[in-house]
Amino acid sequence: MKFNINITTLKPIQVMICSIILALVLAGCGGGEPDPGDTVVFPQSVTSLNGTISVGYPNGWVTQIGEEQFVLANSDAALTIADIRTLTADQIYGTISVIPNTSLGGLDLSAESTPRQFLDAILSRGGGPAGARTNIDNRQEFRMGGHDAIITRGTIENNDIRYGSIFALIKYSGAVVLLNFNTAADATENYVDVVEEIARSVIYPATATP
Hints:
The chain is of the alpha+beta class. It contains four helices and nine strands; from the N terminus they run αββββαβαββββα. It has helices at about 10-30, 75-80, 115-125, 190-200; strands at about 45, 55, 60-65, 70-75, 95-100, 135-145, 145-160, 160-170, 175-185. The strands form two sheets. A seven-stranded antiparallel beta sheet has the order 3-4-5-9-8-7-6. It has a two-stranded antiparallel sheet with strand order 1-2. The longest helix is centred in the N-terminal third of the chain and has 18 residues, at about 10-30.
């Protein structure tokens, strides 16, 4: 595409208009591919026992590995805590799980559903213990490695005890990866960034290129 414009014969307002039009045209020529979104690589990572998912985590954190899920915490004390409602502001404990779409039967979801719709449906089915009251808001959508994702945080109240909870969900073909981290009720803002970084480190399936 070639443009022949004699700038010297145009008035200043005309120059400005031409510049705007040219910028819009060139932007349109650049293609409409969405930004794949940043990924994060931590110094260490772990892979599930069945080899389907891997995730990175920060220095000093500890993990327990399951068949298709993980438990992550920022200390041994947090990892082995008996009741997540008693987590203190300097502790965070979370799970990372693969949920096949076939396990979400009964929910009004389809392959075209967005991460927000997946997360809202999962939370409506019970994001916390039975009988608990959830106050989860502040949803923020993002992309990582070519996949749509969402993160949100808030509090859960169970038997008059409030604690903080952060949820992140990444949508893949045929499955979603759900992260749920818990901490003290007033500490979620301290950890939401690192939980997003952990989400951005997820590789599923584990043989995929990050």
